[in-house]
Please model this.
Amino acid sequence: METSAPLAAVEAFEGVAGLVDGGGVVVLSGAGLSTESGIPDYRGETGRRRKGVPMTYQQFTASEADRQRYWARSHLGWDSISAARPNTGHRAVARLADAGFVTGVITQNVDGLHRAAGTAQAVELHGSLHRVLCLSCGNRSSRRHLDELLDQANPGFRGTLAQVNADGDAELPLERVAGFRTVACQVCGTGTLKPDVVFFGESVPKPRVARCYDLVDAAAALLVLGSSLTVMSGLRFVRHAAKQGKPVAIVNQGTTRGDDLAAFRVHLPLGATLARLADRLGA
Model:
């Protein structure tokens, strides 16, 4: 697909509206869609204050000290993640799906807000912070239950947070990590617990990737919402759609790695723009 010339905001919105009105649209969403729910993104305005870097899968699995640090910070950050509610943008996507305009949703987010908004079939590409996985026996359990267990193991640990990141990780001084007690899997008794999300350095399960490709293959168009497409896990679907000659539209504040493949590029706030789109189409 040839790179389109820059369009005025109104013209770009009209182009996206026409595209979605044709139906068969698959949505690919990123962290920018959740910022209006109070969850910071990674690389946009709310992500620039982040002091640390995300823990890798290799660090988490190799070091008990790193797991202690991860769970201490994540335990404090969980309140913000669990309290987050779907915003206007999430609800607009659900409206468009209910009305038949959107036939599938692939989200790079781990906050569960698409599902909470009513898009039950959203494919959570990178997993969900609302679930916990035992690396030994494979059991999946509720993060809320783990939160209760960690509270019992660490009475009085909770405190005021300075910042919570998009992955639920709180900024926490190292001295506060010392003494934090992790808990083992309640099913096998000894297994290491990990949030059911794809860490940096870890691969997305192949069946999940295949499901996403199937959605794009069956789609008439791809609509990217709130993603910079910096990582290949999302960008590959944009490239796949473009290679098939399917139109790609991007709504994101800030440049993306997929801009040269977009037929329509809208630089506007997600919530208001998506609500306007749903209203325009009678969804």
